[in-house]
Amino acid sequence: DIQMTQSPSSLSASVGDRVTITCRASQSISTYLNWYQQKLGKAPKLLIYSASSLQSGVPSRFSGGGSGTDFTLTITSLQPEDFATYYCQQNYNAPRTFGQGTKVEIK
Amino acid sequence: EVQLVESGGGLVQPGGSLRLSCSASGFTFDEYAMHWVRQAPGEGLEWVSLISWNGGTIDYADSMKGRFTISRDNAKNSVYLQMNSLRTEDTALYYCVKEGVTGTRYFDLWGRGTLVIVSS
Questions:
Q1: Is A101 part of the contact surface with chain B (CB cutoff 8 Å)?
Q2: Beta strand ranges found along chain B (DSSP E)
Q3: Residue-wise pLDDT tens digits, A58-76
Q4: Which residues of A touch B44 (CB under 8 A)?
Q5: How close A89 comes to chain B (CA, Å)?
Q6: B41-73: per-residue pLDDT in tens?
């Protein structure tokens, strides 16, 4: 199975900060990488697919990058509604493994 | 409204069985692959199972193989997860998830989940 490792596991940031979350795959997955946002008590929501494509309706302050084994999710100018847990997921092959999550908290 | 609604969760003893159901609406159900993803209390997301649009492709996470069975009824816009030989570690919120259009392999619609508690 492909292992997905996110860093950091949690971070504290202020409104307006630029935040970057990293996801590393245990083998090359090209750009078969998605990012999801999960708010407390809610179902996950797709943010980014194919490493860098923004899902319809997602604010442009979210962006994704990377290929191969190393990927990033960046939030420019963090907003109050962005405090949540973020997960990466590989869809290169089965099983469709997720990272362990990165919790973004208010500083 | 485009939505997925899960049902069938509950409290079951170790070794018991449950059948989860997911009812879809607002989109052409028989055009999309469907998945189950679970989340143990306070933990991350774990992919459980996949079924293709016509049921021709089915897959499971290793720890569920031989115990869980996914199926779908396109006439009823529904997908199911039969869970047998349940273990305490199967305790989780089970989400029904729609995959994007063929080839995209991302999860673009999630239900609210149904809670399964395995305990004696």
A1: yes
A2: 3-7, 10-12, 18-25, 34-39, 45-51, 58-60, 68-73, 78-83, 92-99, 107-110, 114-118
A3: 999 999 999 999 999 999 9
A4: 87, 98-101
A5: 9
A6: 999 999 999 999 999 999 999 999 999 999 999
